[in-house]
């Protein structure tokens, strides 16, 4: 047995454990820097610095509580969304049928299985009716495995696999982590390969770690050289580290992603894996089947025709026999054939059948006929015609080679007009002859109408406007695929067929998928192969599917997208579940996903650059002042106050240029941004320092008060300025962000006047200090606005303001 593909945690029926409130609260205080700061604060308490220690601990607790409240609400909201798309199964418990969630299944339950169901636990087969199971989630092999009531693996079913055809019942022998799939999940989790979002956060963390280490070491050395008290120096250095660290980032990411997930759910898209939102935003290729996505999906039988294209009651009768008598995979096409063509049709006895599977794309039944039997096969034209020895032209049987031109001509003509063709073939059998799908006679076709969605062309155009290239990958023939592609505005060019894909090496296929937009007569394994080739070429690939045949491709895509009414395995494998299988819904989901990611990046860019500038300023000032430029508690208070509006950046409005193309983490760009804008902040901070120290001759308390007020004000200004690529006055911030910024500004301005201001190291500033701070903040805003023009490539071209 081989492991599941290592690029992603295996998707299956094991659900991640829910986070308790205690766990979420504890997570807010796991940062090593926070723990060191708390330790130093306790040490300060033991040394008699009661006030300083108490204030630091209060700020630490307030920051943690703020993060906890935001994250708890976010996690609960996500859990509620996941409940809406839980997988259920049918079981017999003490002989009573009931519908349970997978988590509710227990050892000893009898599970009822049919085509498309996910196996909810490890089981022993009790009853098999042509039951075949796809075990690729465990083995990597996509062929179906026959399951019988036997003592070896042929009689065992494994959690996370899915029924490909047939039906049956099985007794549960193990659940959850005790199953083979559970063991695999544990193994793969230990060697989990991060998503692109996780890699971005990790790279960002490394950048911060290096920067913090250098600054803290430099400041600590400077303080020791100045012979300042050791505990004070340690507290100051750690406060600087906390000041540079965006400690609210985990809570803000969770809040942003979960709020975005809730907004997407309101638009008809349920996100099952939160970190996939970044992948949604980075998506630049969307692969989709045509049925129900770009077409209405309401197939209607348009009659049955013979090989010459003439109406044929004989072909209709054969199609009805095949559709009505088989006991395998139920599908809408068979239901429509029976409803539209089967009125009053006789039903001979069923002798045998060959169930449908998605590799053959054929379904056969053997019915009683005279002293023998008649094999009636129905399915894909390409697959059935490849097994034919002749075609029925009127009363004559023409050899395949002679009938080829006429048959292919009819298929091309009807398919190019938008019809979907299902081929029907027969073969006479002796009484005891085993059914074999070879040497068939092509009898004719059943025609189906599935009109293109009226809004499909607009949806494809909307996706193109978002930088997403649509590819159609369908099991229907190349002519039908080309017709649909043309109708929705995709210039199809040459259509690549499944047989051509099969003949290509991976290298050849990679070259083809780079330019080809339409693939026809494609098998499930080929769908997955195409998706993986696109992904390996550097694209972030989404795949839309709702059938059993889509499970492999959904797993192989960077973003698997299914529909709420899909079969269990498709819905379980997907990262997103949409209410309506509509490209317009997906386009809206992509836009919302990019908005979520944009707001997350805003926080990272803005906070890192502002904090970096402030910390460099403090490090420089430390070398020139006979006292600390800011007290440790003031640095922590500054960080806490600036984090309050930052928590609401997840609710901020997003300019269109943030969402018009795929985006991802770019740590090298972030580094340049941090240094450039941070040094602007440093320059204005040092100007403040110079004015207060050299011009106004401010003492320690007045200098710290002025610098504290300027630092908070510039952090608020930079938040409102750098949240947009546009001039700040041409992009209105979100109401929550603006209100929180104004509230924090008011609180900060009032802090020097509160009764306990002296304990914070603050005092009412003089008029000259206030005037200087206001002028410097205005200059800082102007400098930021001028520098933004040099970073246009970070966000892309600016659209005209509305």
Number of helices: 27
The general outline is elongated
Regions with little confidence, pLDDT below 50 for 5+ residues: 1-16, 188-193, 795-802
End-to-end Cα distance, whole Å, is 59 Å
> What structural class do helix, strand and pairing data support?
alpha/beta
User: Tally of extended strands?
Assistant: 23
How much of the polypeptide forms β-strand, as a percent range? 15-25%
User: What's the overall average pLDDT, rounded?
Assistant: 79
- CA gyration radius, whole angstroms: 33 Å
Largest sheet: 8 strands, mixed
In percent, how helical is the residue content?
Answer: 40-55%
Which strands sit side by side, in order, in the main sheet?
8-23-22-21-9-18-20-19
Characterise this structure.
α19 (551-556) links the parallel β21 (541-544) and β22. Mean pLDDT is 79; it is low at 1-16, 188-193 and 795-802. It is elongated, with a radius of gyration of 33 Å. The strands form 3 sheets. An 8-stranded mixed beta sheet has the order 8-23-22-21-9-18-20-19, sandwiched between helices. Strands 10, 11, 12, 13, 14, 15, 16 and 17 form an 8-stranded mixed beta sheet that branches. With 802 residues, the chain is an alpha/beta fold. 52% of the residues are buried.
């Amino acid at each position: 047995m081989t492991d599941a593909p290592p690029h992603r945690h295996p998707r299956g029926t094991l659900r991640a454990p829910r986070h308790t409130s205690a766990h979420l609260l504890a997570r807010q205080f796991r940062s090593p820097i926070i723990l060191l700061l708390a330790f130093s604060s306790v040490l300060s308490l033991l040394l008699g610095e009661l006030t300083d220690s108490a204030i630091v601990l209060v700020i630490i607790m307030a920051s943690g509580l703020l993060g906890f409240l935001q994250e708890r609400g976010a996690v609960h909201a996500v859990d509620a969304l996941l409940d809406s798309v839980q997988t259920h199964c049918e079981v017999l418990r003490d002989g009573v049928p009931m519908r349970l969630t997978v988590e509710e299944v227990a050892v000893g339950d009898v599970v009822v299985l049919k085509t498309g169901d996910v196996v909810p636990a490890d089981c022993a087969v009790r009853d098999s009716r042509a039951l075949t199971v796809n075990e690729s989630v465990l083995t990597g092999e996509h062929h179906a495995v026959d399951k019988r009531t036997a003592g070896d693996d042929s009689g065992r079913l494994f959690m996370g696999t899915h029924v490909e055809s047939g039906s049956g019942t099985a007794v549960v022998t193990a659940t959850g982590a005790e199953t083979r799939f559970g063991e695999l999940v544990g193994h793969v989790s230990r060697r989990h390969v991060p998503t692109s979002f996780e890699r971005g956060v990790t790279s960002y963390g490394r950048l911060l770690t290096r920067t913090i280490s250098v600054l803290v070491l430099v400041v600590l050395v400077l303080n020791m050289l100045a012979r300042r008290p050791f505990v004070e120096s340690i507290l100051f250095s750690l406060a600087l580290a906390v000041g540079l660290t965006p400690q609210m980032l985990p809570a803000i990411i969770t809040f942003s992603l979960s709020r975005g997930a809730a907004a997407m759910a309101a638009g008809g898209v349920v996100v099952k894996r939160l970190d996939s939102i970044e992948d949604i935003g980075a998506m630049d290729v969307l692969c989709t089947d045509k049925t129900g996505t770009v077409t209405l999906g309401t197939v209607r039988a348009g009659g049955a025709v013979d090989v010459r294209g003439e109406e044929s009651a004989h072909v209709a009768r054969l199609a009805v026999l095949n559709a009505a008598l088989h006991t395998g995979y139920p599908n809408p096409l068979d239901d429509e054939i029976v409803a539209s063509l089967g009125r009053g049709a006789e039903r001979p006895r069923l002798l045998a059948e060959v169930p449908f599977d998605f590799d053959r794309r054929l379904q056969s039944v053997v019915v009683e006929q005279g002293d023998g039997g008649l094999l009636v096969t129905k399915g894909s034209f390409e697959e059935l015609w490849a097994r034919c020895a002749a075609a029925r032209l009127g009363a004559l049987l023409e050899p395949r080679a002679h009938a080829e031109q006429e048959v292919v001509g009819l298929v091309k003509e009807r398919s190019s007009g938008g019809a979907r063709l299902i081929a029907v073939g027969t073969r006479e059998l002796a009484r005891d002859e085993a059914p074999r799908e070879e040497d068939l006679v092509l009898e004719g076709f059943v025609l189906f109408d599935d009109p293109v969605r009226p809004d499909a062309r607009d949806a494809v155009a909307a996706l193109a406007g978002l930088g997403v290239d649509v590819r159609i990958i369908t099991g229907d023939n190349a002519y039908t695929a080309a017709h649909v592609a043309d109708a929705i505005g995709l210039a199809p060019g040459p259509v690549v067929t499944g047989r051509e894909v099969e003949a290509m090496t991976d290298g050849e296929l990679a070259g083809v998928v780079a330019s080809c937009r339409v693939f026809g007569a494609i098998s499930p394994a080929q769908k997955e192969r195409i998706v993986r080739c696109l992904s390996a070429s550097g694209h972030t690939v989404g795949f839309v599917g709702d059938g059993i045949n889509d499970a492999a491709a959904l797993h192989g895509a960077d973003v698997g997208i299914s529909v709420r009414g899909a079969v269990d395995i498709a819905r379980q494998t997907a990262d997103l579940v949409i209410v309506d299988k509509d490209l317009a819904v997906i386009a809206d989901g992509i836009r919302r996903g990019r908005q979520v990611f944009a707001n997350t990046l805003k926080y990272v860019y803005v906070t890192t650059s502002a904090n970096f500038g402030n910390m460099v300023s403090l490090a420089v000032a430390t070398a020139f002042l006979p006292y600390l430029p800011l007290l440790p508690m003031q640095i922590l208070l500054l960080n806490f106050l600036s984090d309050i509006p930052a928590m609401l950046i997840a609710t901020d409005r997003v300019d269109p240029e943030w969402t018009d193309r795929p985006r991802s983490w770019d740590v090298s760009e972030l580094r340049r941004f941090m240094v450039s804008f941070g040094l602007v902040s440093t320059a204005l901070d040092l100007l403040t320092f110079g004015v207060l120290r050299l011009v106004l001759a401010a003492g320690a308390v007045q200098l710290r008060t002025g610098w504290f007020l300027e630092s908070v004000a510039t952090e608020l200004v930079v938040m409102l300025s750098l949240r947009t690529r546009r001039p700040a006055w041409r992009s209105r911030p979100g109401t929550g962000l603006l209100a929180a910024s104004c509230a924090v500004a008011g609180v900060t301005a009032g802090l020097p006047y509160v009764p306990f201001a002296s304990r914070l190291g603050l005092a009412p500033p003089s008029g000259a200090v206030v005037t200087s701070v206001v002028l410097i903040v205005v200059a800082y805003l102007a400098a930021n606005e001028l520098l933004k023009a040099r970073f246009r490539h970070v966000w892309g071209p600016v659209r005209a303001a509305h």
